[in-house]
């Protein structure tokens, strides 16, 4: 008890000292600061600097605010779990407290897609197999408003942590990338998962908002099959043409089985299969989103901003297995930007997603859960009504379009 009290006192003294230094630094830098300095930021060292290489004082004040949040957790309230929450998270303690239920994920193939990459690819690709509507192959992603760190870096760090935990639980893990220097479009990432025959996959992202005060976690899911953007986007005549193309693509894929199947045939075949599997993908994707949202927010302390159903996400539209995209936080929020760049918070993100995956597997495997009974066989209205009736913001479905390319 005495040892814990000493630790708390030392932490308080260090925090006060740091805030004093930050205040002095802020005053000195502001005295001769050019208003144009804000236009030039550099993230080579993972933090925001001006054109002279000086660290912005706001960066330090952000860390001070973060330390105050941590002190509040120490002094004001009990920890949410024996291993802590958010920036106080202790991954070693969390792993020690989880017995992994003797390889509870053994036999599963789980995909992880760390969103984006070092260099954006603004060339266009169809948002769905055979669709005439296009999107960027791969957008640049978001960037931290305070740290200057790009989203693709954070996504990969958390993906590596999550992959390690899942493997420890007995799962086989498939990653779309293991470094930043790749060139993979969104459809190519989905096709990688199809080729690996994953049971389901998680797309890791962070987002930005026009309101810098917005913070929290949003999860995106594929739309129900009835809401999908049709491949030809045109009516009965084009629908018949698409059906014929499907048959031709299937024949072409069979003829080329001995040699290398062309990408065009593979995509056309994916179109047919994805439409047939669409409803099951939506149902299981929504269940996966629900369990991960609850666990993620519990472990990280993040606010749930809801589950959103989208029709225009390329990675969703090419997928043959359940898939979600989790926006783990808002890099446009200075405080959340700082948190997402802390190793302890990244640990909490990975562990929260892992707990959500475990709950999803239990739910899907439970014969009494009867998940599909929530959804009407000929439409999703009954399912949406049942889910929205729960009163939980995290269980509200909204059909929206998103300009962010993924």
What report would you give on this structure?
The chain has 406 residues and is an alpha/beta fold. It is 46% helix and 13% strand. It has eleven helices and nine strands. The strands form two sheets. The protein has a seven-stranded mixed sheet with strand order 4-1-5-8-6-7-9, sandwiched between helices. A hairpin with a 7-residue loop joins strand 2 and strand 3. Helix 2 packs across helix 9 and helix 6 packs across helix 7. The protein is globular. It starts with a helix and ends in a 6-residue tail after the last strand. About 16% of the residues have low confidence.
How many DSSP helices?
11
Shape: globular
Name the strands of the widest sheet in spatial order.
4-1-5-8-6-7-9
Biggest β-sheet strands, sense, barrel: 7 strands, mixed
N/C terminus separation: 50 Å
Radius of gyration: 23 Å
List unreliable stretches of 5+ residues.
29-47, 229-240, 256-261, 376-401
- Total number of beta strands: 9
Key traits:
406 residues; alpha/beta; seven-stranded mixed β-sheet; two-stranded antiparallel ribbon; 9 strands; globular
Short description:
This protein is 46% helix and 13% strand. It is built from eleven helices and nine strands.
Secondary structure layout:
Blueprint: H1 2-31, H2 57-75, H3 91-97, E1 109-114, E2 121-126, E3 134-138, H4 151-168, E4 172-175, H5 186-196, E5 200-207, E6 217-222, H6 236-255, H7 263-300, E7 304-310, H8 314-317, E8 323-330, H9 334-340, H10 343-365, H11 381-388, E9 397-400
Parallel strand pairs: 1-4, 1-5, 5-8, 6-7, 7-9
Antiparallel strand pairs: 2-3, 6-8
Helix pairs in contact: 1-2, 2-9, 4-10, 6-7, 7-10
């Amino acid at each position: 008890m005495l040892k814990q009290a000493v630790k708390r006192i030392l932490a308080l003294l260090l925090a006060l000292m740091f805030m004093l230094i930050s205040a002095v630094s802020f005053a000195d830098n502001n005295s001769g600061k050019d208003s144009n300095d804000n236009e030039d930021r550099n993230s080579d060292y993972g933090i925001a600097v001006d054109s002279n290489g000086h660290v912005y004082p706001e960066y330090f004040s952000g860390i001070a605010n973060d330390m105050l949040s941590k002190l509040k957790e120490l002094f004001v309230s009990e920890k949410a779990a024996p291993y802590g929450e958010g920036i106080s998270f202790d991954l070693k303690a969390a792993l020690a407290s989880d017995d992994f239920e003797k390889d509870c994920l053994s036999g599963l193939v789980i995909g992880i897609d760390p969103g984006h990459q070092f260099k954006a690819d603004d060339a266009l690709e169809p948002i769905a197999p055979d669709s005439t509507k296009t999107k960027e192959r791969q957008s640049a992603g978001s960037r931290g408003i305070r740290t200057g760190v790009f989203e693709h870096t954070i996504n990969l760090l958390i993906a590596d942590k999550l992959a390690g935990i899942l493997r420890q639980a007995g799962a086989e893990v498939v990653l779309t990338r293991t470094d930043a220097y790749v060139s993979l479009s969104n459809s190519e990432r989905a096709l990688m998962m199809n080729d690996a025959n994953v049971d389901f996959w998680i797309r890791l992202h962070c987002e930005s908002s026009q309101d810098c005060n917005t913070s929290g976690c949003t999860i995106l899911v594929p739309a129900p099959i009835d809401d999908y953007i049709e491949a030809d986007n045109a009516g009965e005549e084009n629908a018949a043409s698409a059906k014929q193309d499907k048959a031709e693509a299937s024949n072409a894929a069979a003829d080329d089985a001995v040699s290398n199947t062309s990408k065009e045939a593979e995509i056309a075949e994916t179109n047919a299969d994805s439409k047939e599997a669409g409803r099951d993908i939506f149902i299981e994707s929504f269940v996966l989103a629900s369990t991960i949202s609850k666990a993620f927010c519990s472990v990280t302390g993040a606010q749930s901003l809801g589950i959103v159903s989208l029709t225009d996400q390329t990675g969703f539209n090419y997928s043959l297995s359940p898939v979600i995209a989790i926006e783990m936080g808002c890099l446009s929020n200075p405080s959340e930007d700082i948190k997402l760049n802390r190793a302890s918070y990244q640990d909490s993100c990975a562990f929260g997603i892992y707990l959500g995956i475990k709950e999803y597997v239990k739910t899907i495997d439970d014969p009494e859960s009867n998940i599909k009974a929530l959804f009407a066989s000929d439409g999703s209205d009954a399912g949406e009504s049942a889910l929205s009736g729960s009163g939980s913001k995290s269980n509200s479905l909204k059909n929206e379009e998103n300009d962010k390319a993924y």
